[in-house]
Amino acid sequence: MADEPEYDMEFHRWGPNAMEMPPSPPATPPPEDEAIDFEREPSPFSEATSMTSVDSTDSVGYYREEAGRMFAALPDVPVVMPVDHAEIRRVSGQYELIKLVTGNNYFHEVDDLLRSPGGDTKRVLDIVSNSPWIDEMALEYPHVKFTGANFVPTRHPYRENVQFEVYNLVEGLHGKNGTYDIIHADATFKMTRDFKFWLKEMRRLLKPGGMLLLCDMEMAAWMADGSDPVLHIPTICKYTDCVDSQLRAQGIDLVSMPCVGGWLRELGGFDVVEDTVTSVPVGPWDTDELQQEIGAMARDNIMGALYSCHPLMARLGRSQAEIDELITEARRELYEKNLQLFERVFYVYARKSFIVVDEEEQEQASTTPPAPSISLPAPPSNNG
Fold it and tell me: What InterPro entries does this protein map onto (predicted)?
């Protein structure tokens, strides 16, 4: 198994590492008094793709209902988190939480790349564009062209330098080789059964020297003192174990989430791969004021995620009464027991090699075992 990332905080880990209608797409016209100094270019995606741009009149067919929540209707898309208003609000809150933890939307290398003068127009791809990340980045970098790819239409503010595309991402990320300077993916590990395939697609779409930015929060909570969380938050552990089992039944193994950086190293084609994990307090138990704010937001985010996962519980045969009882007890554990909990956030920053290597040759090189070594006899001595 690929190596896990380095840990940058002091918390110990216990164990062996273990309804609303969906939103419509934007229909807001551009402000008449806003000066726009460039025209929108054709999509960099291949003309042969099945990618679709939609308006609010034909978005209904992209959704289906299950257990009172809305999900993508595309075939073979895993049933994990809904795509309705309630979940989009939770994702937006999680985005604000991550930004508070990291201090910004990006690393300084990203700013250096996007502001570098000359050359072709900079392009950025945001995979599964549910959060406000693409909106804020497009506002900060108006000269950069952003593409958001998603399974369903989602609502975003109008930006002249942003376009959104809807297609079945499970089948692959559409686009020509070497299209993007930066690819960003937040909370996408559980959106596909084959994340390694997506990593290959991301490598293909990146330009030489392009950057890959990945971030994900695991769906679990741990005790800051290293003790077994089952002894303190049994209901939350039971709930998350049920979600894990349902995801495994769909071919998604969340235990592998910490291994993404190692997978990239094995895949090859990147000069730099940096992966870290940050422990985030759950609940306002830390003495630091900022950490208290982060902890309160993290606690609300976990509670919202438990609500969003109740269709998975229904798939396991749980009645609505049983689910409601679990939710009530989970809320008590989070909000009333005053426990020192934390959860983990995984980050990966990678930079594609500047030397272009054929992708098929690179993949073959990463999977072909090295040739056996040959022992040669020692050269004859000149002393004898």
Answer: SAM-dependent_MTases_sf
Specify the pairing of strand 63-66 against strand 6-7.
unpaired
Tokens, residue 233: 């938050």
Q: What burial letters (b/e) apply to 160-189, b meaning 16+ CB within 10 Å?
A: bbbbbbbbebbeebbbeeebbbbbbbbbbb
Burial of 319 (0-12, 13-18, 19+ CB in 10 A): exposed
Structure tokens at 105: 């939307």
Asked whether the predicted pLDDT for residue 85 surpasses 70, the reply is: yes
Residues constituting the chain: 384
What was the pLDDT predicted at 119? 79
Q: How far apart are CA 360 and CA 323, in angstroms?
A: 48
pLDDT digits (tens, 9 = 90+) for 299-311: 999 999 999 999 9
The pLDDT tens digits for 210-236 are 999 999 999 899 999 999 999 999 999
Count CB atoms within 10 A of the CB of residue 12: 13
- pLDDT at 327 exceeding the cut of 60: yes
**For residue 219, what pLDDT is reported?**
87
Domains of the chain are 6-11+42-218+253-281+342-354 (3.40.50.150)
Question: What is the rounded CA–CA span in Å between residue 105 and residue 102?
Answer: 8
Number of C-beta neighbours around residue 365 at 10 A: 12
CA distances from 160 to 53, 171, 322 (A): 15, 28, 48
